[in-house]
Amino acid sequence: MKILRIAAKWLFILCLPVLLLSASIAGAVNCLWLYKYGFDKYDVGQTTGLADAELEKAARGLISYFNSDEEPISVTVVKDGEPFKLFNQREIAHLADVKGLIRLDYWLLLGASVYVLGYSGLSLFFRKPGYRHRLATGVVAGSGLTLALMLALGLAVLLDFDRFFWQFHIISFSNDFWQLDPTQDYLIMLFPQGFWYQATIFCALATSAGAILLGGTAWYYRKRHKNTKEYNN
Fold first, then answer.
1. Mean pLDDT across the chain, nearest whole number?
2. Are 173 and 100 in contact (CB under 8 A)?
3. CA–CA separation, 189 vs 196, rounded Å?
4. Alpha carbon of residue 139 to chain centroid
5. Is residue 228 part of a domain?
6. Is the pTM higher than 0.85?
7. Does 36 reside within a domain?
């Protein structure tokens, strides 16, 4: 029984980074503001020749596609007064692969959320009061692990983002559809490499903020109740 208790606690600790990172990725995927910020920062309107309203239509179309069973993606925008399909077949194939990664992120978020909430619920409501302190210890450990991982990610991004970006694609995709032409393919015009740098930093900071909030709250709880009778139960 003790072994199961220890295993359950360690699984909880490991699930926290998964929960926080997958939540930040899901948030970024669905954050229209992040898309529009990237479009403005990298002058995407000038690069593509699309008006702001058409860029927003493209962003909304992508968000809708990632959250639906629609296949293949079909986004029509207006350029120079003429409607046209934004993505070619190579881009469509790559977006299907990206959608698969996003769905995987959603499943990881769901699985980690169920376990973290279940473990926390049992610790808070169905066990001895001392389990609350063990839960707090687990939250502090999981938050610390999350911050360590985000520090490693931040260093990798800051030191050589080009290499990090390339390795991510090599590991994540089994084809070369991600290798697009920035002079012809609208997908890479919409989202240049600089956008992905900003998005990675956004996710790392959001994940770190969640870890600091949870870990700080749990640390304060442990400190406040350290010398109480409940702590030793």
1. 94
2. no
3. 12
4. 20
5. no
6. yes
7. yes
Contact 130, 231 (CB under 8 A): yes
What does each C-alpha distance from 85 to 26, 52, 54, 75 come to in angstroms?
26, 17, 12, 6
Q: How many domains does the chain have?
A: 1
- Quote the crossing angle between the two packed helices 193-225 and 32-41, to the nearest 10°: 130
Which of 153, 187, 151 has the alpha carbon at shortest distance from 167?
153
135 within domain boundaries: yes
Question: Which burial class, exposed, middle or buried, applies to 45 when counting CB atoms under 10 A from its CB (0-12, 13-18, 19+)?
Answer: middle
d(CA 159, CA 153): 10
**Per the structure block, which two tokens stand in for 137?**
């210890």
The residues near 133 (Cβ < 8 Å, ≥ 6 apart) are 221, 222, 225, 230, 231
- Per-residue pLDDT of 63-115, as tens digits, reads 999 999 999 999 999 999 999 999 999 999 999 999 999 999 999 999 999 99
DSSP state letter for 72: S
Is 54 inside any structural domain?
Answer: yes
